[in-house]
Amino acid sequence: QRRVHGDITPAKMESRQSAALRRARVALRHVIPDQCSALHLHDADTTVFAPTPEWKYRYTVPGGAFTEEMRAHYEQHGFVVVKRLLTVEEMEKYRVRFIEYCDKKLKPPVGMQVVKDVSLAKKKMTIEGQQGITKLQDFQEDEVLFDYCQHPDIVKYTKSVCGEDVKSVHTMFINKPPNVGESGRHPLHQDLLYFPFRPADRIVCSWTAMEQAGRDNGCLVVIPGTHKGDMMEHGYPQWESGVNKAYWGVQQLPEQIDNRVHLEMDPGDTVFFHPLLIHGSGTNRTQGYRKSISCHYASAKCHYVDITGTYHAPLADEIMSYASKKFFAQAAVSYHDIWRFKSRLVAGREYPDGL
To answer: Is pTM beyond 0.85 here?
Structure first.
């Protein structure tokens, strides 16, 4: 058979498209039944953390690749960084794929968003190539990029939080081009704001630096220990430069803001963090790019919750308004339906009452 995109044959592509269609049918079956029958950087082979006597497990589970010391650090601080988890050579295919979308050599699959920075819209500028694109969001139907989410060296660490049955729930390829300005920042926020499922402690993000990430080009910033607190009120920050769509931030930051840590990372370094951990990123003030690739995971046993009247609702309404116009104009789709479509099993098995 003729091969396309590495080892993906036309037959495999057809099979994967069928899998995507099945997920869409699951998501929509009940609404349109007639149509759908660093503090520390941890080397993978080096022990640097010591658990304290009062430490108890809550945020991690037995199994997976976390060592006891890594579990202790995640329990206390809400994140852990694994050095050199992926190689530059492994990540090159993700970079090439991103450039293909930027150069319009590929048509985005259903559900993927190719995002431009708000500053370009305000200036009514059209910039071609990777300079004009800041994110590919929801790339779960692109098998080249989704290879990251299924990477065994990533998934084995997620099992220390999610357990043996793991689903990917949200995917992003993030690009910080040079000369975008202050709008390239991502305000400090908690990812749980976006997720209509629980329990929160069985959700984890993996975020891998594809290029050197430092304070000068907008590395991640985290506030250790904030995963132990509550969900905080979010909204758009009042920035003169403008704010990108759905980039909500914590409205009143906690006292721990003074303890924030800049996670300066080398290519291939990967941080795993809790969805309540307050984090964000700064401005790229260099003349180079800062790329990363990220996936959120959750236990397949997680369950959807009613978000009516909660802090989720205003943001969910905004996301639903956009998604309905762009992707689901002909169907009455719920916020849960969107997440059902975005989710894919990467380890273990499905559960009837799960995600």
So the answer is: no
